[in-house]
């Protein structure tokens, strides 16, 4: 029966390609292939039992999460036999209260559990709706039904982690590279055009008072449809995990911030820096790029000061209003201010270059004061 349905889907692909736009043809064919692969995998119970065992091993040291054990001698491609673990539906507020679980605490546990599966372990349950999640009498999270699940390759895991990181940090260049690496976008895509679209998506989202994962994904994928575009099975299932999982979390706590929890998780596991570390990293990058200029600064200062002392320094401007004369002290004030700024920048340098700059700033400030007093 299922094989017959899949043949019907395959038969419709040429008809749809004949009437579709060129960019859509790429998506239609890949969607059909991916749909068939996912359906056939869901019917392989031996694969499901294997993934259950792997996920159970990955959470063996976490007493907050309960993964039913499998009875391997009873499992086959047509049957999966698992331990009976009693629990109450995760959205039952009374059950959570009786188990001593705060709703926000449980929502955070659910989000971090699924982030660990996908980004750290590379093996994840992809169907986190309320019917598959429960809470035990002692407050543990139970995850049922692993038919929709996935095992990532090491490269896929790395690329998906980068996708999450760039989405959270709103890094447009990194996001574009991650989408191409994951084969969401074809490598021949017009990168400049996609970057412009991604920039508009980010700006549109930042204008909202509240941003959810579902909004980000909806905006992102809806705007990418004008390009050669597809959603590979692994990406599609992880997107589903994020959107469905966020829905469950927000049903427990309407104010739940999935993006903030994701950012915290990425920081805790070293996938992104904290805000302070990111700022320091940006400063270090700027200083590395500025080092050649800063290294030449003392020689240039000497040259400028020599010209100034010899009266050879000329600054050409177009005066706004006619003037009968000028104030020579202004030049000293400008130089003193510039040197103060240079001292602030040079404090990050390993060598004590800021000392010389600060001394010169004091000298020119003195010259400014002297000229003002005698002027």
Number of domains: 2
What profile does the largest beta sheet have? 4 strands, mixed
What does the radius of gyration come to? 31 Å
The parts where pLDDT drops under 50 for at least 5 residues are none
Mean pLDDT: 79
Q: Whole-Å distance between the termini?
A: 100 Å
Residues in helices, as a percent range: 55-70%
Strand composition percent: under 5%
Strand order of the largest sheet: 1-5-4-2
Helix count, DSSP H or I runs of 4 or more residues: 14
Given the helix and strand composition, which structural class is it?
mainly alpha
Order of helices and strands: HHHEEHHEEEEHHHHHHHHH
Shape category: elongated
Number of strands: 6
Outline of the structure:
The protein has helices spanning 2-19, 22-42, 45-58, 93-98, 103-121, 154-169, 172-181, 191-206, 213-224, 233-252, 258-268, 275-309, 329-346, 353-374, and strands spanning 65-66, 88-89, 123-125, 133-135, 141-143, 149-151. It has 375 residues and is mainly α.
